[in-house]
Design a protein that fits this description.
The complex is a heterodimer of chains A (about 300) and B (about 375). Chain A has about 300 residues and is an all-alpha fold. Chain A is about 75% helix and about 0% strand. A two-stranded antiparallel sheet of chain A has the order 1-2. Chain A is flat and about 75 Å long. With about 375 residues, chain B is α+β, with helices and mostly antiparallel strands. Chain B contains 9 helices and 22 strands. Classes of the chains: A mainly alpha (about 300), B alpha+beta (about 375).
Chain lengths: ~300, ~375
């Protein structure tokens, strides 16, 4: 009763009073609503994959509720994990990703340090060039790459086609430019005085990089590592174009080439394979996220 | 410990001259402050001594050794930066010992030196903390500690107090002076704050436009400025500059200023100013030499009637502003002198402390 009297008696004042808290409450409600929507939307496919992976082929094609497993079975998992081919794909993917991440980070951290800190002739132009490289889509590149591989074979006799390790040469063309760009940004945010202090303290460039820059820019390095890993783990086009033998395939290509036989889709195993394949990036994200979020630069200088 | 010598130092950045030929001799154990407005080249000069900027022309010697092409780490210097530049991922102990570790000093000695420096700066209990857990003043102490443990030949300070609040700045100023009295290392200190310069320095170097205006002890600069710039820069509130003319006055001289009665020049200064008779000059008078008039006037002191426009009480004294020939002149009177805005007030001008400046050359005559 008192509320209505207040609302009609002095409408403008009553409306304005406490409006910040009210706005905030509404903003919170809206964000929770959309976050929930978002989570449902993006969790649907993996949940469906999980449900399907527990079904037999007969149940998948049966006209029952697709969101329920009536006869759960681990047969798909057992079959996939006892098959040599799936394990080979997994091994190939792991080898490629780990090596590519290592190579990319080594190159991009050094490159970014040089581009961000050692002022030399053309360094700005070079930094922009690195970024432009990243903007060229890979779909434009795989035909020229074919040509280049043929040239390498003709010139040296080294066969690059149909080898899993060729991916180690190819993937850094995607990861290095972007990682370098991320790291340039992170290194540029480190105050100039920090390396000058290190320089006066007696550190060489390499010591400044390893003892100051890398620890301080750790969140950036982790971000770049996650990016490089995700790109190499999920890369599809290059391995599809450049590898054909079963023992040379990586996971994403392997699953679709061996588990789809003609027009027979082995859905249960495809889902299982994809689900297991999604696990490593998930685990890596979970481990590195804490570091990724932590801002370590606070307190270096004023602020 | 060492002396630092700068000879004809020039620094150009893409055709703009930041430093235009500086000569400076800094004695062993001396505390020298480079002071000037922003862009005067003081920080560039310091960075050239540190080896962080290349020298375009000239020679820098530290302890007699030519260091033009010596990298910073081999110059045996330590520097304290304006924004502290502490390594954020290291504890205070590691921050302070970083330079020693790189120089492969024995572990026990590192510990000893860090603890000694921490003792001097009273930061013993902070040694395990990270920089982000420290307040501004504490961070500045750590930055100084990092310099002290190195036992360098020269300390370089680049506006170390500019990021601190006013109260802490005064406190740290005293702290820096104490540290210098204890460790006695040759120090070059850059600031834009003339009070900091005056209070800390054995000698102050006033810079302007890439050149040295004047070098001297704080009192020399205050009492005998060479140029209008130094006269206006040193002292707060700044010196008043009033257009005037010097005329003969019997056997002596007098200064004629618009709106004011003639101000006789003290006898001992008459000879010095005689060549200036008849010329348009600037009369330089510090606010502290324009006081309330009380009792009989001493020799060289003239009384004027001032129409007070603005009164600024400071507690221990009161600033009064009054117009003279279209210029606001500041005087410093005792708080009980009773100056009120809009009222007239008799003020005593101490002509024994006067300066005359030639506006054509901006030099004090």
């Amino acid at each position: 009763m008192a509320d209505t009297a207040l609302a009609t008696g002095a409408p403008t004042r009553a409306l304005k009073y406490g409006s910040i808290a009210k706005d905030r409450r509404w903003a919170l409600r809206l964000s929770y609503f959309f976050l929930t929507l978002f989570a449902i939307f993006f969790l649907m496919p993996p949940i469906y994959m999980f449900i399907t992976s527990l079904k037999t082929s007969a149940e998948i094609s049966a006209e029952t509720n697709p969101w329920w497993v009536f006869n759960p079975t681990l047969a798909n998992y057992i079959e996939l994990l006892t098959q040599d081919t799936y394990l080979i794909f997994f091994r190939n993917s792991a080898m490629v990703s780990v090596i590519v991440v290592t190579i990319s980070m080594l190159i991009s951290v050094f490159a970014a340090f040089a581009l961000a800190r050692m002022r030399f002739w053309g360094s700005t132009l070079l930094a922009t060039g690195v970024f432009l490289t990243y903007l060229i889509p890979e779909t434009l590149l795989f035909i020229p790459l074919f040509k280049m591989m043929a040239m390498v074979r003709d010139a040296t006799g080294i066969e690059l086609m149909n080898n899993w390790w060729t991916m180690i040469i190819l993937y850094p063309t995607l990861t290095v430019p972007f990682c370098t760009w991320i790291m340039i940004g992170y290194f540029a945010s480190i105050p100039k005085e920090l390396d000058e202090a290190a320089l006066i303290d007696g550190a060489t460039w390499i010591q400044t990089l390893t003892k100051i820059f890398i620890p301080v820019a750790l969140p950036g390095i982790i971000a770049a590592t996650i990016f490089a890993f995700t790109v190499s783990w999920a890369q599809f086009l290059y391995p599809l174009a450049f590898t054909t033998s079963t023992d040379q395939l990586v996971l994403p290509v392997g699953i679709i080439t061996t588990l789809i036989k003609g027009d027979v889709f082995n859905w249960g195993q495809i889902m299982t394979g994809a689900l297991l394949g999604a696990a490593p990036p998930l685990i890596i994200y979970a481990f590195l996220m804490d570091y990724y979020i932590a801002g370590l630069t606070a307190g270096a200088t004023k602020g | 410990m060492a002396q630092v010598t700068l000879q004809k130092i020039v620094k150009t950045f893409d055709r703009t001259e930041a430093v235009r030929g500086i000569d400076l001799d800094i004695a062993d154990r001396e505390f020298v402050v480079l002071v000037g407005p922003s862009g005067c080249g003081k920080t560039t000069t310091l960075r050239m001594i540190a080896g962080l900027e290349e020298i375009t022309a000239g020679e820098i010697r530290i302890g007699g050794r030519l260091v033009n092409d010596v990298p910073p780490k081999d110059r045996d210097i330590a520097m304290v930066f304006q924004n502290y530049a502490l390594y954020p991922h290291m504890s205070v102990f590691d921050n302070m010992s970083f330079g020693l570790k790189l120089r492969k000093v024995a572990k026990e000695e590192i510990k000893e030196r860090v603890e000694a420096a921490a003792g001097i700066l009273s930061i013993m209990e902070l040694l395990d903390r990270r920089p982000r857990q420290l307040s501004g003043g504490q961070r500045q102490r750590v930055a100084m500690g990092r310099a002290i443990v190195r036992h360098p030949q020269v300390f370089l300070f680049d506006e170390p107090l500019s990021n601190l609040d006013a109260k802490l700045r005064v406190q740290m100023r005293t702290e820096i002076k104490k540290v210098h009295q204890r460790v006695q290392t040759t120090t070059v200190y850059v600031t834009h704050d003339q009070i900091e310069a005056m209070t800390l320095a054995d000698r102050v170097v006033v810079m302007n436009g890439g050149r040295i205006e004047q070098v001297g002890t704080p009192n020399e600069l205050y009492n005998h400025p060479n140029t209008r710039f130094v006269a206006g820069f040193i002292g707060s509130p700044a010196m008043n500059f009033i257009p005037c003319r010097v005329d003969a006055h019997g056997s002596g001289l007098k200064v004629k200023v618009a709106d004011l009665p003639d101000l006789p020049v003290p006898a001992e200064r008459a000879e010095r100013y005689r060549p200036q008779v008849g010329r348009e000059l600037l009369l330089g008078l510090r606010p502290e030499h324009i006081k309330e008039s009380r009792g009989p006037l001493g020799p060289g002191i003239s009384e004027i009637q001032a129409r007070i426009e603005v009164v600024e009480p400071m507690g221990m004294e009161t600033m009064v502003y009054f117009p003279v020939g279209g210029i606001d002149v500041c005087g410093r009177v005792a708080p009980e002198a009773g100056g009120r805005a809009g009222s007239a007030m008799p003020l005593a001008v101490d002509m024994n402390q006067m300066h005359l400046i030639d506006p054509a050359t901006d030099r004090v005559v």
